[in-house]
Design brief:
about 190 residues, alpha+beta, nine-stranded antiparallel beta sheet, about 40% strand
């Protein structure tokens, strides 16, 4: 049986790894996702992490909170955050300092935030302490494919992330456990 803190750590590391390339909120707002239940598939190349499938129950406030998390990370930790709208895609290039390491990322966001979208992120990590599942120095690629499934189920509340093994973690609760400078908008600082 997997320890609950390991799942929380995996979710937090995933957010940290992809947030710099997904957080153009300050320069160009991402469209809000449709309220309801989203299935998010994450595949990691160049890391010793299995692919993950998570369901997210969101409303406008929790969707904005997730975007604000990345915006706070960018403002506090990234020296470069270039965002360009190219046709129907957003291209994001960033250089961020996270925990003593430098993460240089190139991300492309495409799709319709009412039904499905894809995010591809290529990252190069240098320096810093070892991170479980990540090469000490090197490149990794993350692909995120998300699709809207339905309204949230009756036993779900906005912010719930349902992990592949059925465990539920709420992003609001998770952000409240993070350092104050990394919490999203509307959270206790």
């Amino acid at each position: 049986m997997r320890h609950p803190l390991r799942a929380l750590s995996t979710a937090a590391l995933t957010l940290l790894a992809i947030a710099p390339a997904m957080s153009p909120a300050g320069a160009l707002d991402l469209p809000a996702r449709k309220t309801g239940l989203w299935e998010v598939k994450m595949a990691f190349e160049g890391r010793n992490l299995p692919s993950q499938v998570v369901q997210q129950c969101i409303d406008a406030a929790t969707d904005k909170m997730m975007s604000a998390f990345g915006g706070n990370l960018r403002q506090d930790m990234c020296s470069k955050q270039d965002v360009q709208k190219v046709g129907n895609t957003l291209v994001v290039d960033s250089v961020c300092q996270i925990g003593g390491m430098t993460m240089t990322s190139h991300g492309v966001v495409s799709g319709d935030f009412n039904s499905s979208y894809t995010v591809t992120v290529s990252s190069t990590r240098t320096g810093g302490p070892a991170i479980p599942g990540a090469p000490a120095e090197g490149k990794s690629n993350t692909t995120i494919e998300a699709k809207w499934l339905s309204a949230c189920k009756p036993d779900q509340k906005p912010g719930d992330m349902i992990m592949a093994d059925g465990r539920k973690i709420n992003i609001v609760d998770m952000q409240n456990m993070m350092p104050p400078n990394m919490r999203g908008a509307g959270q206790k600082k």
